[in-house]
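dumping this here so i dont lose it
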């Protein structure tokens, strides 16, 4: 199993590190515009090989994609202070289009493509349009991270392990993402029906505050340390683990949507079964009318951005 990561920055290098410490793949490659940076990251991780799992780490050119099983796109940049989302989108679309030309040249016909660079939903769409390959092979890291943040915030409220909570965010990885309160559970109990002596049921205000904190969570990190990379690397590693082990597990990844909930021709996150051959099937969650409306709005935000950058 070979994972090729394009972009050896904070996110790409941390994904490589996380994969190496978990021994999930036999081969991990880093490809970057700056080969010295990629090689430096490879050396730094490989120096720990004797006290960790065995992985063949390499810094390579795009020929490294020839035998890849999963290609992770983590090249590009994050939003600069004061920069609009649209300007970030334009910059990273240009970088991504250049990368897609190389991915196409080295496509072995089976590698899955996992998009992480932001705006992730827009760039997943760009990959679909430009690659023109089986839709199951291309998806974005989606709201796996947002859903984990949602569970973290709920676990803080209930003072319990986030693993006791099942909850997800659907739609855009960004401001219009939709926390699915109707599907959230504590263990097997719907959150709407759960309360204890210590924890009264969540009020409408609590929900609004937590919902807001979910979408602002990334900014809370960025304003303190300039970037986010640990939790996204853990989320991407989780996605890769599900693929490598062919788990057929449900994760909220970003995929090409063609009609679900009245949403069409856009990439956004909905829960989907994921396995060795990529996206198998999306799972239909019964949404409340408010959640359906919020999902359609989220799709509208993404479609507006696709129009502004000339992709629709
Ligand atoms: P970074 O600036 O640390 O690294 C980016 C790397 O990309 C650099 O090493 C750079 O040399 C490389 N690069 C740029 N153009 C390239 C090209 N044409 N070909 C190959 N490599 C190229 O940035 P980062 O912190 O690693 O963030 C990367 C992306 O991940 C950003 O867009 C960020 O917003 C995104 N991100 C996404 C999520 C998510 O949930 N999807 C979370 C965190 C960060």
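and the seq i came up w/
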């Amino acid at each position: 199993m070979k994972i090729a990561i394009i972009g050896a920055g904070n996110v790409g290098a941390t994904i490589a590190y996380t994969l190496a410490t978990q021994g999930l793949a036999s081969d991990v490659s880093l490809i970057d515009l700056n080969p010295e940076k990629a090689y430096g990251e490879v050396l730094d991780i490989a120096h720990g090989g004797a006290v960790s799992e065995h992985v063949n780490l390499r810094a390579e050119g795009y020929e490294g994609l020839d035998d890849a099983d999963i290609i992770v796109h983590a090249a590009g940049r994050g939003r600069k202070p004061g920069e609009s989302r649209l300007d970030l989108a334009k910059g990273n679309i240009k970088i991504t289009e250049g990368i897609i030309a190389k991915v196409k040249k080295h496509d072995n016909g089976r590698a899955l493509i996992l998009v992480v660079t932001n705006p992730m939903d827009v760039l997943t769409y760009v990959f679909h349009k430009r690659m023109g390959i089986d839709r199951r092979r291309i998806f974005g890291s989606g709201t796996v991270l947002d859903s984990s943040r949602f569970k973290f915030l709920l676990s803080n409220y209930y003072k319990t392990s986030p693993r006791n909570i099942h909850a997800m965010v659907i739609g855009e990885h960004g401001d219009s993402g939709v926390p699915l309160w109707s599907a959230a559970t504590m263990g097997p109990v719907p959150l709407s029906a759960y309360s204890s002596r210590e924890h009264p049921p969540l009020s409408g205000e609590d929900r609004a505050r937590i919902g807001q904190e979910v979408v602002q969570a990334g900014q809370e990190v960025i304003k303190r340390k300039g970037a986010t990379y640990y939790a996204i690397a853990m989320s991407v590693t989780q996605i890769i683990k599900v693929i490598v082990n062919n788990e057929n597990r449900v994760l909220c990844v970003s995929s090409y949507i063609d009609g679900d909930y009245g949403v069409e021709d856009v990439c956004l996150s909905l829960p989907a079964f994921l396995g060795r051959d990529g996206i198998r099937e999306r799972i239909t969650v019964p949404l409340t009318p408010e959640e359906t409306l919020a999902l359609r709005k989220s799709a509208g935000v993404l479609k507006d951005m696709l129009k502004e950058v000339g992709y629709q």
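The longest strand covers residues 264-275.
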